[in-house]
Every structure is written in structure tokens, then in C-alpha cells.
């Protein structure tokens, strides 16, 4: 087994490193890495950002949003946690989490953490999830990566991860939420860095891995892949390059108005109006009128004016709603 | 000659997969070993390669479709 030390906390760089090792370097034996990130949410390959994330909380807390090449649900990672990556040369396309999970489970057991596996290929301690895993398979190689929570900010995690079935775009993969726990409950005297180093040592004891350090050209290529493939907003938020937005504004004398929307093919989509304002407005009719409208201030303004002409909102006018859809981007 | 491409079995646990994205479009030349499409199942993204040389004729499933093992996925015109 090869061990590649990872210094970067940048999720795009580290996803680029995984991809580089899998598709360009082509080691003939398994590769193992341990890494961490700055506060980051990672979506699964086919997930809907609008439904999975509280975009406002993501922006407020300066959290990075990334999309994995692997499947599964959305996770939160930070420097209090530890990511592991295993890359195997493998001609079988059939799915198998067992060898990777067995290694991590054995290493955790060796350092005194009694982790077991569950039916979703997660590692659990006392029935609570401490690690989730996902994979992607390219011809000849299989990548298994996972997340270990040690002293991650679970309060922030809960604020960021949403799962709103109302907003879930049709034909997307939805996250399955499970009860999670930090591993420092088991080893409170360790820091996250101690945990990572102890885990690295335990994997070394089990595999006698060789260390490999990337040369300068390889490092440059990793940065390039990270920027081109993983930091691209079109990849992260959707093929059209626009995001999923949630705007909330309080109007004196009107109340709180919340509008969530996405933009697909330069048109409004998935518009969702809620709030505590006073109106006889039929929110569903309002939303349907806007869905499919070109994302153009004048066109959107015309639709909103027509809707409010029938059923006004007390203390909130059409221009204010139009501003919510255009002025925050 | 037209050759039918059917969904292979990719997971020991499941015969029903989420269809991901096409890597080849109708009219594209395809070589044996080229990635045709990807699917997601059990938190795994798998890329499925062509077993044929030819030209992709028709795509029979779209992103987000649920497909079963054995379903017709595409046809390839082989020489």
C-alpha cells in the first residue's frame, strides 16, 4: 500500500488529488490518504443543492460547497474531522465497500475506538454514525472515501444541512439523515490532529505502507484538476451554472417574506413562496406563474405585478418582491 | 448491425439503479472500453464501458431514470 500525505485543507485541491491519483498516476497497488478540510459541505454526485443545503447559512458561515464524484448524501466536514481515501486498482465493477471499511474499522479498534459497520456501509459507535462512505468507479480503478467525525461542529452541521423534500428536484438523490456523534466522546484527551496521527499510525501497523510524495509537476496538475473539475460552479450547483437561492426579507408593516428558487436554462424554476405576510394570494398559483419565466427583471416584474393585482400582499409591493429575486445575487 | 446495450448487474444488493449521465451522445463514435454512461447505486457511482466498437445510435434512458438490470439502455451500430 502507498500512503500519500495531504497538507491541503482545500476540498477542491483534495478532490483533485484523488482524481489525479485515480485517473492519471495509476499506481499498481492501493493508495491511502488522510485529510481534512476547512468548513465544507459535500454534495453527492446527483444531489440537488437547493434541497440539501440551507444556502443562507452556508453563505453566512463562509462554508465551502463542493460536489463529489461519488454517490450518496450530503456531509459536513471541517478540521475537527478526518477524511480517508482508498484507491484500488480493480477490474471488477461490482460494488464492494468491505475491504476499505474493514481496514478503517480495524485501525479504529486498534486505537481503542469500538466501531462497527451497519447496513448502509457506515461506521457506527453505539448505534450512532461516526463515518459515512461513498465510492466511484472508473475503468480499472475504484475509489472509496469516507468521513470520520472527531470534534466536528455538529451544531453548524445541523444548520447547514437541510433536506427539504418540497424543493427536491425530480429525479435527484436525497440524503438520508442519521444520528451522528463525534468520536472525541470516546477519547476526550485527544485533539483532532492526535486522532488523525494515531489513525495513520494504526493503518501503518496494519499495512506497512510506503510513503509517496508528489513531485512539483504532479502538484501543479492536482491544482489544475481541482480548479477545472471541482471548483467549477457549474459542476457544484448545476449544469446551467446558476445556483439555488433562498432569500428572506422582513418588511416593516408587511412581515417576513421568504422566496426560494433555482434557475435552469436561464428561467426561474422551483419557486417557493412562504412567510407570515397577510394576503389572499394563492402561493401555489403565484409559484406556477413564475416557474418557467425568463430570468429577466422586466419579465419577472410583469408576472409579479399581474399576480399582486389580483391578490395584493399587505405592506409589500411588486418591486420589493422583484428586488428579492434579483438584488441579492 | 444494431447491437443492444442492456443494464449490467453492478451491485450484489440491488437490481435497480439511478441512471446518471451519458458520456457519449447519439452519433458519437464508440470504442471498446470507452465509458458510455454512469449510474448510481448504494452510494457508488459506476462508469459503464462499451463492449463494442461502433457508433452510438440511440439512448433509451435519461438522467434520473430508475433502471433495472437487463433494461435496454442504448443501441450501437456496429460494423
From TrEMBL, chain A:
Catalytic activities: L-lysyl-[lipoyl-carrier protein] + (R)-lipoate + ATP = N(6)-[(R)-lipoyl]-L-lysyl-[lipoyl-carrier protein] + AMP + diphosphate + H(+)
Top enzyme class: ligase
Keywords, alphabetical: ATP-binding, Ligase, Nucleotide-binding, Transferase
Enzyme nomenclature, EC number: 6.3.1.20
BP term (GO), one: protein lipoylation
A GO MF label: lipoyltransferase activity
GO cellular component: cytoplasm
Source domain of life: Bacteria
Keyword DNA-binding attributed: no
Domain BPL/LPL catalytic: 26-211
Pathway the protein takes part in: Protein modification; protein lipoylation via exogenous pathway; protein N(6)-(lipoyl)lysine from lipoate: step 2/2; Protein modification; protein lipoylation via exogenous pathway; protein N(6)-(lipoyl)lysine from lipoate: step 1/2
Pfam families for the chain: Lip_prot_lig_C, LplA-B_cat
Database matches in InterPro entries: aa-tRNA-synth_II/BPL/LPL, BPL_LPL_catalytic, Lipoate_protein_ligase_C, LipoylTrfase_LipoateP_Ligase
Annotated protein name in UniProt: lipoate--protein ligase
Organism annotation: Lentilactobacillus parafarraginis DSM 18390 = JCM 14109
Lineage per the UniProt record: Bacteria, Bacillati, Bacillota, Bacilli, Lactobacillales
Automatic annotation (TrEMBL), chain B:
PROSITE patterns reported in the protein's UniProt record: BIOTINYL_LIPOYL, LIPOYL
Classification via SUPFAM superfamilies: Single hybrid motif (SSF51230)
Family matches, as Gene3D superfamilies: 2.40.50.100
Keywords: Lipoyl
Pfam families: Biotin_lipoyl
Biological process per Gene Ontology, one example term: pyruvate decarboxylation to acetyl-CoA
Record has DNA damage as a keyword: no
Keyword Nucleotide-binding: no
InterPro entries the UniProt entry points to: 2-oxoA_DH_lipoyl-BS, Biotin_lipoyl, E2/Pdx1, Single_hybrid_motif
Chain ranges of the Lipoyl-binding domain: 2-77
A single GO cellular-component term on record: pyruvate dehydrogenase complex
PANTHER family tied to this protein: DIHYDROLIPOAMIDE ACETYL/SUCCINYL-TRANSFERASE-RELATED, DIHYDROLIPOYLLYSINE-RESIDUE ACETYLTRANSFERASE COMPONENT OF PYRUVATE DEHYDROGENASE COMPLEX, MITOCHONDRIAL-RELATED
Protein name, UniProt field: Biotin-requiring enzyme
Amino acid at each position: 500500500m502507498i500512503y500519500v500525505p495531504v497538507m491541503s485543507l482545500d476540498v477542491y485541491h483534495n478532490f483533485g488529488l484523488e482524481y489525479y491519483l485515480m485517473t492519471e498516476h495509476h499506481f499498481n497497488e492501493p493508495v491511502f490518504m488522510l485529510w481534512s478540510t476547512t468548513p465544507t459541505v459535500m454534495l453527492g454526485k446527483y444531489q440537488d443543492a437547493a434541497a440539501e443545503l440551507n444556502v443562507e447559512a452556508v453563505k453566512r458561515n463562509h462554508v465551502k460547497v463542493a460536489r463529489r464524484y461519488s454517490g450518496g448524501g450530503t456531509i459536513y466536514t471541517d478540521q475537527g474531522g478526518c477524511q480517508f481515501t482508498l484507491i484500488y486498482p480493480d477490474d471488477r465493477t461490482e460494488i464492494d465497500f468491505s475491504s476499505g471499511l474493514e481496514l478503517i474499522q480495524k485501525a479504529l479498534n486498534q486505537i481503542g475506538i469500538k466501531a462497527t459497520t451497519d447496513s448502509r456501509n457506515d461506521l457506527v459507535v453505539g448505534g450512532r454514525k461516526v463515518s459515512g462512505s461513498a465510492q466511484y468507479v472508473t475503468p480499472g480503478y475504484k475509489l472509496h472515501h469516507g468521513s470520520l467525525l472527531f470534534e466536528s461542529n455538529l451544531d453548524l452541521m445541523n444548520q447547514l444541512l437541510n433536506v427539504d423534500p418540497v424543493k427536491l428536484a425530480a429525479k435527484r438523490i436525497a440524503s438520508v439523515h442519521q444520528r451522528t456523534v463525534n468520536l472525541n466522546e470516546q477519547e476526550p484527551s485527544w485533539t483532532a490532529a492526535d486522532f488523525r496521527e494515531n489513525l495513520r499510525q494504526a493503518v501503518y501497523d496494519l499495512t506497512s505502507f510506503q510513503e509517496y510524495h508528489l513531485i512539483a509537476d504532479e502538484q501543479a496538475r492536482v491544482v489544475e484538476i481541482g480548479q477545472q473539475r471541482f471548483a467549477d460552479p457549474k459542476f457544484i450547483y448545476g449544469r446551467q451554472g446558476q445556483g439555488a437561492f433562498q432569500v428572506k426579507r422582513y418588511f416593516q408593516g408587511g412581515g417576513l417574506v421568504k422566496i426560494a428558487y433555482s434557475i435552469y436554462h436561464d428561467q426561474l424554476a422551483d419557486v417557493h413562496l412562504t412567510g407570515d405576510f397577510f394576503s389572499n394570494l394563492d402561493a401555489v398559483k403565484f409559484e406556477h406563474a413564475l416557474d418557467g419565466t425568463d430570468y429577466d427583471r422586466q419579465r419577472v416584474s410583469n408576472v409579479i405585478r399581474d399576480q399582486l393585482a389580483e391578490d395584493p400582499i399587505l405592506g409589500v409591493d411588486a418591486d420589493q418582491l422583484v428586488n428579492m429575486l434579483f438584488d441579492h445575487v | 448491425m444494431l447491437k443492444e446495450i442492456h443494464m449490467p448487474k453492478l451491485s450484489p444488493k440491488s437490481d435497480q439503479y439511478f441512471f446518471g449521465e451519458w458520456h457519449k451522445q447519439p452519433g458519437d463514435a464508440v470504442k471498446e472500453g470507452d465509458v458510455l454512461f454512469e449510474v448510481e447505486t448504494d452510494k457508488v457511482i459506476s462508469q459503464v464501458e462499451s463492449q463494442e466498437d461502433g457508433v452510438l445510435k440511440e439512448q433509451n434512458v435519461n438522467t434520473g431514470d430508475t433502471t433495472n438490470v437487463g433494461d435496454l439502455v442504448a443501441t450501437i451500430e456496429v460494423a
